[in-house]
Amino acid sequence: MANELSNRFNGMFHDWDHFFNDFNHLMPAFNAENQQLKSDVVDLDDHYEVSIDVPGINKKDINLNYQGDTLTVTATKHASNTEKDDEGNVITRERTAGRVQRNYYLPDVTLDKIKAHVDDGVLNITLPKSENSHKQQITID
Fold first, then answer.
1. Among 61, 49, 58, 43, which Cα is nearest to 101's?
2. Where is 5: in which H helix or E strand?
3. pLDDT of amino acid 77
4. Which of 10, 61, 96, 108 could make a disulfide contact with 76, Cβ separation 3.0–4.6 Å?
């Protein structure tokens, strides 16, 4: 009897989890975790390295802009094809389309030497620093 009650109790939570997961798929704008570019930024002596996860996004749908010491990355993901049953009804649609943008403050970059490429779903950007931006230790008198 205790085991049966435990199974019913767990089943109730399972049903609630499905309800709220389905709600997130219907309202993707509220699921902010999926709407942000995940990235790593490294500040080296002579350049910055930025790596951004862009799985499923074609490089022609990524826009890079550097202005006012800020790198802006904009990516657009287009709607996916959906699987349909015999009547043409959607069986599931979990992947969403949309546009995401992220800004990175990276001062003193040499504009004409910025390089970017996409490899295995990761956008890698190298931003060389200008000659006068190297750090220098200052002695206090």
1. 61
2. helix 2-26
3. 86
4. 61
Q: How far apart are CA 88 and CA 69, in angstroms?
A: 50
Mean pLDDT by 10 residues, the chain (141 residues): 51 54 49 70 95 93 95 87 66 76 94 95 96 69 76
Instruction: Count CA atoms within 13 Å of residue 137 on its CB side.
Output: 1
**What distance in Å separates the CA atoms of residue 32 and residue 36, rounded to the nearest whole number?**
7
Dist CA 3 CA 57 (whole Å): 48
**DSSP-assigned letter for residue 69:** T
Using CA of residue 30, residue 31, residue 32, residue 35, what is the dihedral sign?
A: negative
Number of residues assigned to the chain: 141
Q: What Å distances lie between residue 11 and 7, 21, 42, 83, 132, CA to CA?
A: 6, 15, 46, 28, 64
> Of 106, 99, 118, 132, nearest to 53 (Cα)?
118
